[in-house]
Write a structure and sequence with these properties.
mainly alpha, about 0% strand, single chain, about 60 residues, transmembrane helix, GH, membrane
Length: about 60
Amino acid sequence: MQEDIQLMKDLGTNSYRLSISWPRIFPSKHFIKVYLLFSAIYLLAVTFRSTILCSLLVDIIV
């Protein structure tokens, strides 16, 4: 992914479209009910997207 971000920077891209698939974060309705009770979510899915967004923000600021 870092290579893709660097390529976008080299090409002068000024935007990036990112979509979040909620089923990847909350795989099923039952899963949502159980995990919302414990205030938990699929941290791996969120962490991956967070890493992408942080990398993009760092490259924009730098």
